[in-house]
Amino acid sequence: MTTPVIALLGCKDVPTDAVEQYCRYLGAALESHDFQLEIHRVPWEVHGWPDALDALRLQAASWRGRWVLVQYTALAWSSRGFPYNFSRVLQILKSAGARIAIVFHDVEPFRGPRLVDRLRTRVQLRAMRRALAAADLAIFTIPLEKISWLAGSSSRVHFIPVGPNLPIPIPSEQDFSRAGNISATPIIGVFIITGGEPGARETKIILSAVRHAAQKLGKLRLSVFGRHAELREAALREGLRDLPVEISAEGVLDDQQVIDRLRAADVLLFVRAPISTRRSSAIAGIAAGVPMVAFTGAETSWPITDAGVLLASPGNPTELHEALVHVLSDPELRASLRQQNALAYRQHFSWPAIATRFAALLKST
């Protein structure tokens, strides 16, 4: 008998909604465990909070005894990251008799030096703590010991990494045995650049790393694709115009095109943030088997450290540059990194592996 489960989301992100994609892939994988996942939203950004909450009350009246997987990011529940109304959403679910499981995609509050940033931090911390107290089950997307505000242990709190928001088949180790080969013109891939000022900083890091690699190795190709990539094309071309680097910059692509670009790369450069188990764009690289070079940080931990990733310290461009050249110039290293990715994807980051852990918790809690 199939058990219905609700995935509850806040406002929709555009042009792509990574949390919705996460729910769709999770739902498909849960079907083999006899769960049927239905996606519902609280569209407060369209109708306003009063009407959105009234509509939720009507929907939740039929959810008594059901699991509701509430997806938390601060910006899904507030346009400026002040999720004051998130607790009201949980109160409605509680009053309706639903079983609440919160999936924390944002695991730490936003931080910054301004007064408004400090206020935002406090509001988000309060929202997350209240949510944790209200939940029957809490899923964090990074290991629990990496979360600064989580005190003590609880049988209600668990770690499950995210998967790739792409339909990438689970490989065998033999699938990546071509790892010693390299393209005639080595390809450095970059999947997604952040918007705004953070994207400008990322672009400078990319330019510095690619310039160093081209000076060491000669002709290269830089393939930048995904959200905001096309906005950085002019800066990339200007920054590399005196070097033998071919540049391809493409914005949002369909799933198969993204997979093709990932698999074509000889190395993936991930500098959006320190790599972690909640970064689906980084997990996509692992799933596609491409060797990666990334920054390490407070959230970097197992099982990312079991995958085919060379880590560099933030603020140390020399480490990043040397790691990139090392991957591109060492066929045995590339072979090893691809095989590590294959194993890590099968065991930890594939949707069947993730759904198995979710199903066990939903059945036992």
Question: Could you characterize what this model shows?
Answer:
With 365 residues, the protein is of the alpha/beta class. It folds into two domains: 3-163 and 350-364, Glycogen Phosphorylase B (Rossmann fold, 3-Layer(aba) Sandwich), CATH 3.40.50; 173-348, 3-Layer(aba) Sandwich (Rossmann fold). The chain is 42% helix and 17% strand. The chain has helices at residues 18-30, 44-47, 49-60, 86-95, 115-134, 196-217, 233-239, 255-264, 280-288, 317-329, 331-349, 351-364, and strands at residues 3-9, 35-41, 67-72, 99-104, 137-140, 157-159, 187-191, 220-225, 245-250, 267-270, 292-295, 309-312. It has a six-stranded parallel beta sheet, with helices on both faces. The chain has a six-stranded parallel beta sheet with strand order 9-8-7-10-11-12, sandwiched between helices. The longest helix is centred in the middle third of the chain and has 22 residues, at 196-217. The radius of gyration is 21 Å and the shape is globular. It starts with a strand and ends with a helix. The model has no long low-confidence stretch (mean pLDDT 94).
